[in-house]
Write a structure and sequence with these properties.
single chain, 73 residues, mainly alpha, two-stranded antiparallel ribbon, 2 helices
C-alpha cells in the first residue's frame, strides 16, 4: 500500500494553494518573480547608455505587470 504525504502548498494551474486558501505562497512567488524582472529592466536602463523612459515603461507594462497581476482577478 502506498501512502501519499500531504504537502503544505500545492501548485495547480500556476496557482499556489494551501489548506486555508490564503494565497500567501502564490503572492510571495509572483512578487519575487516580478522584483527580479524589475531589477533586470533597471539594469537595462542605466544612466549612461540605456533605455529611454518610454521603452522602460513599455517593458514594465508588457513583462512585469502581467506577472504581478497573475491570478488577481
Amino acid at each position: 500500500m502506498v501512502r501519499i504525504q500531504a504537502k503544505p502548498v500545492i501548485r495547480y494551474l500556476g496557482f499556489y494553494l494551501d489548506a486555508k486558501l490564503t494565497f500567501k505562497e502564490h503572492i510571495r512567488f509572483y512578487a519575487t518573480k516580478a522584483c527580479s524582472a524589475t531589477h533586470c529592466v533597471r539594469m537595462l536602463g542605466n544612466a549612461c547608455r540605456g533605455l529611454s523612459p518610454v521603452h522602460k515603461r513599455r517593458l514594465y507594462i508588457t513583462n512585469i505587470l502581467p506577472v504581478m497581476l497573475y491570478g488577481a482577478q
